[in-house]
Amino acid sequence: xxxxxxxxxxxxxxxxxxxxxxxxxxxxxxxxxxxxxxxxxxxxxxxxxxxxxxxxxxxxxxxxxxxxxxxxxxxxxxxxxxxxxxxxxxxxxxxxxxxxxxxxxxxxxxxxxxxxxxxxxxxxxxxxxxxxxxxxxxxxxxxxxxxxxxxxxxxxxxxxxxxxxxxxxxxxxxxxxxxxxxxxxxxxxxxxxxxxxxxxxxxxxxxxxxxxxxxxxxxxxxxxxxxxxxxxxxxxxxxxxxxxxxxxxxxxxxxxxxxxxxxxxxxxxxxxxxxxxxxxxxxxxxxxxxxxxxxxxxxxxxxxxxxxxxxxxxxxxxxxxxxxxxxxxxxxxxxxxxxxxx
Length: 342
Hints:
- This protein is an all-alpha fold.
- The protein has helices spanning 3-28, 54-61, 64-80, 87-116, 134-155, 158-178, 185-205, 210-233, 235-241, 246-249, 251-274, 281-302, 306-340.
- Helix 4 (87-116) packs antiparallel against helix 5, helix 5 runs antiparallel to helix 6 and helix 6 (158-178) packs antiparallel against helix 7 (185-205).
């Protein structure tokens, strides 16, 4: 092959190379697909509750079991307070307390909807499962709060209404917000739990005498073994949702506080006979009940394990109604004995 032919072949190869390369490149590389940026999720009702299911949905929004517990402790405060029972006042105290509790719990769920959806224990609540819109829940909570405080103010007394309003504000406005900020939220929540018996006492007497404060202190102390044991069992859920609970951030303190307030129940109960609310035999009876919960709290403190936390939780559930019944029974026996001596 002459040098002229070799030069021509080289020129042809150079002319064909860009076209061949482009063809090969286009065969190997697929055209780029446009990247779709996901749109921000829009809140919408996924499973609108039928009209016939609204009462059940409202019941779930109000945390019916917790509301019933609040009303029962309020009624216990009314029964333990000195003075004659008036059915009219008792009815409106129960109704107003129920509405205030429904309001506080509705506001709580309205605020915590994104976090409830992350926890297995709360993901089936109405707002988390989209059974109600946030506006619907907010309207329901506001209506219950206005009706509850107004009925207590008009049909009971201003002091009881003020306590009901304070409970809504503390629970929904302070405690709920603090749960994601500091472990001090547990103490604020305990104050919330101590207010209902004060409401009952205030409804019966119109005042808050030393006996009312002792009764409230008993409810305050009881919250810690009850809630701290529950929070330990649910600590994984609380951690996933970003709640700053003692059981998550300081588990040893969580168990120690539960034991500390379980032991505090002994002197608090002993103050009731001193104030003349019950007879002296109440000290012995209450000590038996308090001792069982204290033993469970000690085991939980010594060995913070799920089985001990569950045992303490269930002992606290049994402890409170038994203790309140004992207070009412010993008050009744003391009043009956005083009447027989007249």
